[in-house]
Amino acid sequence: MTTPSDPSYPAHWEADVVLRDGGTARIRPITTEDAGRLVSFYEQVSDESKYYRFFAPYPRLSDRDVHRFTHHDYVDRVGLAATVGEEFIGTVRYDRIGPDGRPASAPADEAEVAFLVQDAHQGRGVASALLEHIGAVARERGIRRFAAEVLPANNKMIKVFTDAGYQQKRSFEDGSVHLTLDLEPTAESLAVQRAREQRAEARSVQRLLAPGSVAVIGVSRSGGGVGAAALRNLRDSGFRGHLYAVNEAATADLLDGVRAYRALGDIDAPVDLAVIAVPAARVPEAVAACGEHGVQGLVVLSAGYGESGPAGLDRQRELVRQVRSYGMRLIGPNAYGVINTAPEVGLNASLTPAPAPIRGRIGLFTQSGAIGISLLSALLRRGAGLSSFVSAGNRADVSGNDILQYWYEDEATDVALMYLETLGNPRKFTRLARRTAAVKPVVVARGGRHTPAGHVVPGTRLADTTVSALLRQAGVIRVDTVTELVDVGLLLASQPLPAGPRVAVLGNSESLGVLTYDACLAQGLRPAVPLDLTTAATPEDFRTALGAALASADNDAVIVTVIPWVNEQAPQDDLAGALRDAVAGHPGKPVAVVHVELAELVDALSPAGVPPGTGARTGPVRPTPSGAPPEGTALPRPGTPYPDAAAPAASTPAATAPAAGGAGRSEAPDGRIPAYPAAERAVRAVAEAVRYGQWRRANADAGQVPAYEDIDEAGAAARLAGLLADAGDRVLTLTEPDAGALLAHYGIRVLPTLPAPSADDAAAAARTLGYPVALKTTAPHLRHRADLGGVRLDLTTEADLRRSYEELTDLLGTPAELLPVVQAMVPRGVDTVVRSVIDPAAGAVLSFGLAGVASELLGDTAHRLVPATDRDAAGLIRSIRAAPLLFGWRGSDPVDTAALEELLLRLSRLVDDHPEVVGVTLEPVVVATEGLSVLSATVRVARPPARTDLGPRTLPSY
Predict the structure, then answer these.
(1) Are 316 and 306 in contact (CB under 8 A)?
(2) In 3-state terms, what secondary structure has residue 554?
(3) Which value, to the nearest 10 degrees, does the dihedral of the CA atoms of residues 147, 150, 155, 159 take?
(4) Strand order, beta sheet including 337-340
(5) For residues 251 and 222, what is the distance between their CA atoms, to the nearest angstrom?
(6) Handedness of CA 899, 900, 904, 907 (dihedral sign)
(7) pLDDT at 569 over 60
(8) Which is nearest to 838 in space by CA: 865, 872, 862?
(9) CA distance linking residue 11 with residue 616, whole number of Å
């Protein structure tokens, strides 16, 4: 019970967390083996902190204290410690108490809680993280309230409690502040938790992308190899901080003009970021040196980890554990590197040769180094710049989710481009993507449909079209190829969002205009008849026509098509200037250019340089031989607070469409107009911008998750606990009575079904239910197959029932094979099917379609992510192709869609509240003109994962 090797030790309480300053710590239960660590920890705490903890001078812990604070039953007495390395930096414990305030056991549901944080680590958010985790532990053990006594002068601890977002009571008793916290999560506590998570994870990425000093470990003396290349790229791209080279065999003071050291420990100055480029077998030694030196983050370029097989995956897991034990974050292993083009940083800690990409408004994340090279090259060829670039390799620690947290509030990034092979934590990704997409576009290309080597998350079971629909629901712009990723990113980074789908097409080629027109129709846009300027058109003709199209209230976007002039002096530069003049004269609408073999025009439309105000860099800035920055260079100040994040855009009138980057921009910041070599590519980019703009406007009000007063969440939890008590790791399919009882806790009534193993039993069941009734087979091969004759409806008498029973058994088999049942008849309506499933790559998914051919054969099924809002539910039933059947198609009576939406929302709540519910199928759901009837329900349950996105903050475990 008291050691990690004991079977009763709650290993699932262990978690790595990111603290407020971006560093990490491990939270775990305290065991009997921690006596020495506890004493050492207490000795480093100031007398003032000890006084605040014990309300009296308490210089040292007695043997009895140490025994008490290290011996727990993990039910009524629990202690957690936050550790860095093997040392405690903070502790928290609770003791269950009864109404009289004395020690108690269950069913007592209150506990006294107390914290102690080492002074050197106060202000890092340690206590807040410990409160989240001890609160989750307490809820798991049946504790609903925390009580705490705090001295009035202990403002820091009072603030920890009052800022947590829980419902609380506060009183002043006997010279101390008495606080009582209700541990039931609230919307406010969840918002506080996620805001802290965002700030901490963004800060951890900021420390990796804006270091004041970098050491490259593994620089060869010959100048060859990965380490030497990384060092050259850092140096030649103008890194503004201190730069060091580390090689254990170094014999000179300089390597490639950079101060060299035989060991990292020999550097007599702080090192913020270490780039490791040594063989995998030597990486642990390098990591240990970094941890001892106080390095904040690592970029591990070394290969030989998860991508190489099971042994490499074990090595990768151990690497993550070691890195986090020192409170560091890791990009990699097998990474390509990171780039930050901010002029005050100039970081190119990657394998991209200098000079680094120019400054721009696009943030780029990839998991694959090869794809990173391809994307960087494509952006460079088309004159686009970057704000930051991360290629995370096996992304064993820092993932796309962390980068989204950073980009969300990064004012230098207007568009987020991501190439993802897996979604990692899917619930968290969609949550972060939805929030980020509310202020800036998130464009995602997903490579591979299966789990790649080096990644330990499972692939999806959903169809690719379904995954795309779910990502679009979260506001993500899903594209299929890296080419489309660049195409869409360029348009969004340089042009305002269109206010609608109306597109003007003009150019000097009738044929190219028609192709563009057809492509617009294929993408669901509303193009006007193309305006043919003829091949004799001059740049002035283009300027006049484009200005008129932009000024027209009938157009939301313009696509210009251009073919080469048949003369000796092609006026590409004049044309580019004319187009820019027209755009400048009529800002607020996006423009894209389609060209045929006019590379010079592309260059002219994409001027070299950077957007105004970002600080142009005319050439690489080399550090001095000592590794110090050039004279006059200002290093980033550690701990600089972020500016306030932009608020989500409000509903925007058509005349003032929101800017793509979310900064209120109404025109391209630098006169850049994106150009495309094919009409289809330009139109696809414009179409994605149109759909994203529509999503932004529609989701200004994201809707609400209704709170139904009749939902019995606690009763459902208790029932699930009983059902899974002996389940082990198995997935259980509940019996019909158990499934019905569980759904009833959430107000979902399943029509009663009575078994009919014989004709007499069928007659008895009908008398119980009342005529008219239905007789159905429930054998797996006949279930929901009315076309095979396994269903008899509207049986109004016993004679009809017995005759139908005989016909079924004569036609299809014996009662033992058919498993017949009897149900009461319900009002006629439209048969639908409602499902929810936990998908490994998408999280909890809610699905809806019409029962039978429409969904099974034609795939006419719509999907939404859980938790669904009232807007999601309304959109779900309207997004299938057969939706008109619900709304009075061809004179039929409309059905009760409000009842259907309520059913969807109740099921969404059930799945969201209880991760034990891994699958639900309600089929058929008969929706009548008034009300609906659930005729059958299948529910699958299993033990939930140890941590979910709804639990306390935690990094993915290894």
Answers:
(1) yes
(2) coil
(3) 0
(4) 347-350, 337-340, 386-391, 359-366, 415-420, 442-446, 477-479
(5) 12
(6) positive
(7) no
(8) 865
(9) 52
Detail the DSSP E strand segments found in 76-161.
Answer: 77-84, 87-97, 110-117, 145-150
| 691 Cβ neighbours under 8 A, 6+ residues apart | 472, 477
Cα distances (angstroms) measured from residue 281 to each of 104, 225, 246, 288, 626: 52, 17, 17, 13, 30
Host H or E run for residue 252: none
Please provide residue 773's backbone torsions phi and psi, each rounded to the nearest 5 degrees. Answer: -130, 170
Cα 857 from Cα 228, distance rounded (Å): 58
How far, in Å, CA of 826 to CA of 936, rounded? Answer: 13
Residue-wise pLDDT tens digits, 411-433: 999 999 999 887 767 778 888 99
CA distance 108 to 142: 8
Please enumerate in sequence order all residues whose Cβ is within 8 A of that of 174, keeping only pairs 6 or more positions apart, or say none. none
Strand order in the sheet with 258-261: 254-255, 258-261, 242-246, 213-217, 273-276, 297-300, 329-331
Average pLDDT, integer, range 467-479: 84
What are the respective helix, strand and coil percentages of the chain, to the nearest 5? 35, 20, 40
* Per-residue three-class SS string for 286-300: HHHHHHHHCCCEEEE
Give me the DSSP letters along 647-701: PPPPP--GGGPPBTTSS---S-SS----EESSHHHHHHHHHHHHHHHHHHHHTTS
- List the one residue out of 572, 493, 498 whose CA is nearest residue 539: 572
Dig out the tokens for 19 from the structure: 């603290």
Contact yes or no for 467/674 (Cβ under 8 A)? no
d(CA 298, CA 221): 22
State the pLDDT at residue 611. Answer: 40
Output the CA angle 814-820-822, nearest 5 degrees.
150
pTM of the model: 0.83
| DSSP secondary structure letter of residue 281 | G
User: Contact at 8 Å (CB) between 711 and 746?
Assistant: yes
Euclidean distance between the first and the last CA atom of the chain, given in angstroms as a whole number: 23
Tell me how far apart the alpha carbons of residues 498 and 588 are, in angstroms, rounded to a whole number.
8
Cβ 478 vs Cβ 468: under 8 Å: yes
Question: Which is more confidently placed, 447 or 842?
Answer: 447
Taking only the tens place, the pLDDT of each residue in 821-842 is 999 999 999 999 999 988 765 6
Distances (CA, A) of 896 to 836, 855, 882, 926: 21, 20, 16, 10
For residue 20, the SS3 value is coil
| Nearest Cα to Cα of residue 92 among 108, 73, 78, 109 | 78
If residue 793 lies in a helix (H) or strand (E), which one and from where to where? strand 791-795
744-800, pLDDT tens digit by residue? 999 999 999 999 999 999 999 999 999 999 999 888 777 666 667 788 899 999 999
Tokens describing residue 427: 């619930």
d(CA 201, CA 207): 10
Q: Give, as one character, the DSSP assignment of residue 119.
A: G
* Cβ neighbours around 577 below 10 Å, total: 16
